[in-house]
Amino acid sequence: MDISMLQKQLQEEHKALDQKFKFISDLQALMTKHGQSTEDLLAILTSVPSVPVAPAKKRGRKPGTKNVVAKASVTPVAKKARKKAAPRPLRTFKNSKTGEVAETRAPQVDKVIKTWAKELKVDWRTLEV
User: Fold this and answer.
1) C-alpha distances in angstroms, 76 versus 62, 79, 80?
2) N or C: which end of the chain has fewer CB within 10 A?
3) Which of 93, 86, 91 is nearest to 106 (CA)?
4) d(CA 39, CA 112)
5) Interatomic CA distance for residues 4 and 31, integer angstroms
């Protein structure tokens, strides 16, 4: 073996150990700053999260699904039923001029409320009871 090769290898190992030592000393400084012990850190790192975090869904088509032919030997997987969105709350609006009351779930598109707002020259949000 060549001595220069051994020196190069030792320098690389020294650099790696130096980085590890720097990381450990920075971590210990941070732990003392926040009053945490090594056991606390181990408990945090080994604990299992109580709520599983689902990966973010990507939009668009999956790669490789352009011209996929279904195989006869593959059994189809049943799709999960989608949950219906909760219905919008029923909101009440009152025409201050006539005293008429209208209930709707989508006031921004309700024709009656829009006409009242035009007649009274106000924003439709102000008519809500």
Assistant:
1) 18, 9, 13
2) N
3) 91
4) 66
5) 40
